[in-house]
Amino acid sequence: MKVSKLLELSLLATMALTIFIIELRIPNQIPIPGIKLGLANIVTIYAVYRYGPKEVLMLVLTRTILGAFFSGQIISLAYSLAGGLLCLVGVMLLRWIIPEKNIWICSILGAVLHNIGQIVVAILITGTLAIIAYLPLLIVSGCIAGTFTGLCAQLIINRGWKRKYADES
Fold first, then answer.
1. Which of 116, 111, 118, 110 is nearest to 141 (CA)?
2. 113, 87, 101, 103: which is closest to 150 by C-alpha?
């Protein structure tokens, strides 16, 4: 991997971690565990359309593992890894189907896959299948959060492309 690409990915990981830590400090307006906006996913969705699977996997693993340590919530690592990896696999496959101009759709589906991964881990950890009743609420919140983060990533990509073409002319 070229040093410039490694530097770019490091900066993206730093941005995602910073956003994650800031979001942790914002009081949760919805007092239901597992529901949050997931603003750091803006960086991930952006990276999905700019880098290959290995690079994005490295970004997601770095952000998830360091985020768990920085937040002091090591127990959340299992939930975050399961959700993040399931989301990543789904979104990496979807990027070949969903064009870049509709990246927000990919983000919604990724958020839903993330929530499904979290529920599966919760069922495995607790041994309680009744947790699946919580899934519809997570899916609705995932659709809302995924739309917002996807639209933000869409805006960043659109502005980046305009700037790139403006520089070439």
1. 111
2. 103
- Cα maximum dimension of the chain: 60
Q: Are 51 and 9 in contact (CB under 8 A)?
A: yes
What mean pLDDT value characterizes the chain? 89
- Number of Cβ within 10 Å of residue 75's Cβ equals 10
pLDDT grade for 168, boundaries at 50, 70 and 90: very low
User: Structure tokens of 74?
Assistant: 């090591």
What pTM was computed for the model?
0.87
Q: What's the one-letter identity of residue 104?
A: W
For residue range 62-80, list pLDDT tens digits in order: 999 999 998 888 888 999 9
Structural tokens at position 125 = 């950890």
Q: What is the pLDDT of residue 161?
A: 53
Q: How high is the pLDDT of residue 167?
A: 43
Q: Nearest Cα to 103, choosing from 21, 161, 16, 20? A: 161
Exposed, middle or buried: residue 61 (CB in 10 Å: 0-12, 13-18, 19+)? middle
